[in-house]
Design brief:
4 helices, alpha+beta, single chain, 212 residues
Length: 212
């Protein structure tokens, strides 16, 4: 993930005077499918970037002073680059500019005058901030088929129970993965509720929950 955070005086205004909490710029199915190829080649593609645009202040005005907004523009780019991932420290401003310019095709009101402050987070920044943001992922690492379902986090551990009696795990690194779903917590809670009967029978095994 490449994330650009903006403090603004306006929310993005799309065609039809629409100001959504979340929006996307998929452009085309072909462009979305090309993301995987760019990842494989380590290519930083700046043309028609696939973006996720989030402006929570259109529904929660308490987050900012009156008349102001927070805006997050997320793009998908490969972590591994020819010459080393350290290049991200220099590349991020260029990528953020390309993403913003593309967004302006849909929300032209986001001029330089509207933007009060900017904070850029490249994949390296996200990983440095939290080791669970592996390779710049905010979903607890890879969510490819071999890291999903019964294989998340590893085979045999998808039910949130560990080989240690009374020790459970939850969070983005567990099934079904990250994002705002509450799925990992719900699943772990179901297992923990079932363990209450076990604890009554085997009181020597206290229950511990580890969040990943």
């Amino acid at each position: 993930m490449c994330a650009a955070h903006y403090a603004t005086t306006e929310a993005p205004l799309f065609a039809g005077d629409v100001q959504p909490l979340a929006a996307g710029t998929p452009t085309s199915a072909e462009r979305i499918l090309r993301v995987a190829e760019d990842f494989r080649r380590g290519s930083v593609a700046l043309d028609e970037p696939v973006l996720l645009v989030l402006c929570p202040t259109v529904v929660d005005t308490t987050r900012t002073p009156n008349g102001h907004h927070t805006l997050k523009v997320v793009g998908l780019q490969p972590y591994k680059l020819p010459g080393g991932s350290e290049r991200w420290d220099d590349l991020m401003p260029e990528v953020a500019d390309a993403n913003l310019n593309h967004l302006r095709k849909y929300a032209p009101n986001l001029t330089d005058e509207v933007i009060l402050a900017t904070s850029l987070k490249c994949p390296l920044d996200l990983e440095r901030m939290n080791a669970h943001n592996w390779h710049g992922s905010c979903h607890g690492g890879d969510m490819s088929p071999d890291q999903s379902g019964e294989l998340r986090p590893v085979h045999g551990w998808a039910d949130h129970r560990t080989p240690i009696p009374g020790l459970y795990q939850t969070g983005a690194t567990t099934h079904p993965g990250g994002s705002v779903s509450a799925g990992p917590g719900r699943n772990a809670a179901i297992e923990l509720l079932g363990s209450s009967i076990e604890a009554a029978i085997y009181p020597s095994h206290p229950v511990t929950l580890v969040y990943h």
